Amino acid sequence: MIDLGQHAVFIIWAYIGVAIGIAALVAWTLLDARQVNKKLKALEARNPRRSA
Amino acid sequence: MSLDNAPKLPWWSRIANPGQFVAMTKPFLWPLTALTGALFIIGLYYAFFNSPADYQMGDTVRIMYVHVPNAWLSQFVYATMSISAIGTLVWRHPMADVSMKAAAPLGALFTTLALFTGALWGRPTWGTFWEWDGRMTSTLVLLFIYLGLIALWRAFDDQLRAARVIAVFTLVGAINIPIIKFSVDWWSTLHQPASVFRPDGPTMPGSILTPLFAMFFAFTFLFATLQLKAMHTEVKRRRVAGLQRRLAQGDRP
Predict the structure, then answer these.
(1) How confident is the model at residue B90 (pLDDT cuts 50, 70, 90)?
(2) Is B11 inside a domain boundary?
(3) Is residue B54 part of a domain?
(4) What percentage of chain A carries pLDDT values higher than 90?
(5) Residue B58 CB contacts under 8 Å (≥ 6 apart), including other chains
(6) What is the mean pLDDT of residues A29-46?
(7) B200 occurs within a structural domain
(8) Facing A14 at nearest CB: one of B106, B121, B243
(9) Which of A5, A30, A43 sits opposite B244 (nearest CB)?
(10) What is the number of structural domains in chain B?
(11) Residues facing residue B54 across a β-bridge
(12) Contact B63 A11 (CB under 8 A)
């Protein structure tokens, strides 16, 4: 790892903050998709005529 | 007329069908994810191992590689929402309001990250985390607009009716985008004026522009990937709502 100088703490926290934010956004997007998929499959199983 | 000799609809009309939209765009998801990942690897490598410290700011210039892409996306996502709002109001395109709804949380997160990284860059550079100047205040207003629009989407049960109301509010809020962009020219601010997208070209050397552009495209493709996935989810969520409504009305096979 390179030497980030006297302001290393600001640089590291900026990247950690962005990594946490992006990871949370990706996780939320995937979890939301999974939950909706699950609901849709359950409903289509109850109503096969509509899902055909 | 049979299905064989029926006229083939243009792609614009075909993607107006939510099911067709999902089927047509699903194959793009994995290539977009791979491209985004590759760009992040290249961008981070250049940002930490293959770019120099700035002659004035020193190593804090490396914060720019995450700050500028997030700041760009905070405005680009809003522009996407505004174009979608026009699509909703003028052409009533069924996918326009899906796009508008899917983009709002993404824009809110990118704006939050732009403010967060800007504050961490500001402290060692200007001596303060925050200043109520034109650029920072207008970006904070943008975050509140995003949050307001997300709250509005959640306030309506009928999403089609919500779309027209929210499209109007989105277009009213679009006035903030040129204010953010030109705030550094109109008012005396702590924030530096534009140094990349200028009529006379960037004021930075190639060694700093390379990681900046790699990260810029990495974040932009990340948005494209997440937006597409969120739009697919929104289409399915509406189908769930439709099926639930039919079941509640007793429409059983």
Answers:
(1) very high
(2) no
(3) yes
(4) 69
(5) A5, A6, A7
(6) 94
(7) no
(8) B121
(9) A43
(10) 1
(11) B58
(12) yes
- CB atoms B240 and A26 under 8 Å: no
Strand partners, B68: none
Write down the pTM of the prediction.
0.91
Query: From the CA of B227, how many Å to the nearest CA of chain A?
Result: 9
CA atoms within 13 A on the CB side of B131: 15
Q: Are B74 and B110 in contact (CB under 8 A)?
A: yes
Which residues span the domain enclosing B68? 28-193+205-244
The verdict on a CB contact (< 8 Å) between B229 and A33 is yes
Buried b (16+ CB within 10 A) or exposed e, B53-78: bbeebbbbbbbbbbbbbbbbbbbbbb
User: Could you give phi then psi for residue B54, rounded to 5 degrees?
Assistant: -75, 145
Say whether residue B41 is in contact with chain A using an 8 A CB cutoff.
no
Question: Which residue of B66, B120, B247 is in closest CB contact with A47?
Answer: B247
The complex scores an ipTM of 0.89
At residue B6, the pLDDT reads 60
B102 within domain boundaries: yes
